[in-house]
Design goal:
Polyamine Oxidase, Chain A, domain 2; 3 domains; 344 residues; globular; Guanine Nucleotide Dissociation Inhibitor, domain 1; alpha+beta; 10 strands
């Protein structure tokens, strides 16, 4: 159990790591601290991370730290950030995760994640089931073709995943195409478990290294995140599968995925046996950008080529490390660029 408000004390006293492993942790702290001090973990400009983007997270951990620290510190963090094992992603993902998890306050949206799109929808004219097939610059504005009908707008913000952005934005295809060819996305099976009692655990997250569970990467205890996530006296778990396991089994029947997930749930929380009230399986065939070695260099080149004065702006998950920090940074950037066009 790690207390995020007392990380140093938790780290020193945890029985999870051997004394030898604990003595090696300062090397990781120094490396991440130097990367932050040199500005190489900047969500706004991932080109700065290029000097770090030269080996996998596991290669770094086993070279600079130890196999034990890779398994019981680095990999759980990387699996939480990207739902992938450390041998599959760049060292930048590890450094970024540590820089965020251990040096920032973790926040949750009051009312749940759904509150964000609901609040936005109240202020916008939202069209559902309206596929966009093309976005073209036209004079000082844009032409957006949706449902076969072109419509003129002053500007637009493209927020869809990279393959769709490349397909519908031909004016920027030469810029988007190379990254689309190299980046790819992770896949994720997510199994929600509702229980008639909460588990005997105050944490909001249980993390697994691949040596403990090759399939399940993490379990969020959503009822511990914030009030209102589950009815009083009940539990709600979100169990996320690692990308390799997800890709291998994503088309298996719900019953099989639920059954395999419950094996881990009951192993960790045996007190939940007989208390499962409902289950729900979600298949994310594009979960997060798959930032393998060199990906951040490619992402940096893309951002450098995009024009801030264009009426077509991008605010999407492929522009930096995936997460809400990126959403906020690039959403604000797109807004600032468009406002500057109309006021400048």
């Amino acid at each position: 159990m790690l207390d995020m408000d007392h990380m140093l004390r938790s780290g020193l006293t945890t029985p999870l790591l051997s004394l030898g492993a604990k003595l090696r942790v300062p090397r990781l702290v120094v490396d991440v601290g130097l990367a932050k001090a040199r500005g190489r973990l900047d969500y706004a400009d991932m080109r700065k991370a290029a000097p770090l983007d030269n080996e996998s997270a596991r290669a770094y951990a086993t070279r600079a730290l130890s196999t034990e620290l890779d398994s019981y510190l680095c990999e759980p963090i990387v699996r939480t950030m990207l739902i992938a094992d450390t041998d599959k992603v760049s060292k930048v993902e590890l450094f970024s995760g540590i820089g965020n998890i251990f040096t920032a306050k973790i926040l949750a949206v009051a009312g749940g994640q759904g509150r964000v799109p609901e609040e936005l929808a109240e202020r916008l004219n939202v069209h559902l089931q309206t596929p966009v097939t093309e976005v073209r610059r036209a004079g000082n504005g844009v032409t957006v073709t949706h449902s076969g009908v072109p419509a003129e707008y002053g500007a637009c913000v493209v927020t869809c995943p990279l393959p769709e952005a490349t397909a519908i934005c031909p004016d920027d295809r030469e810029i988007l195409g190379p990254l689309n060819d190299s980046l790819g996305y992770t896949q994720c099976v997510s199994v929600a478990i509702g229980t008639t009692r909460p588990p005997d655990c105050p944490a909001f997250l249980t993390m697994f290294p691949s040596v403990e569970d090759p399939d399940i990467a993490l379990i969020f205890l959503d009822h511990n995140k914030a009030p209102g996530r589950a009815p009083a006296g009940h539990g709600l778990l979100s169990c996320l599968w690692e990308t390799g396991a997800s890709e291998r089994l994503i088309d298996r029947p719900d019953e099989e995925l639920v059954g395999r997930t419950l094996v881990t749930v009951f192993d960790v929380f045996p007190e939940l046996r007989g208390s499962v009230g409902f289950t729900h399986v979600t298949r994310w065939r594009r979960a997060l950008p798959f930032t393998r070695i060199g990906a951040y260099q490619d992402i940096g080149r893309l951002n450098a080529m995009l024009q801030p004065t264009s009426p077509v702006q991008y605010a999407a998950d492929f522009m930096s490390a995936a997460g809400q920090n990126t959403a906020v940074e690039f959403g604000n950037r797109a807004a600032r660029n468009l406002i500057a066009r109309t006021t400048g």
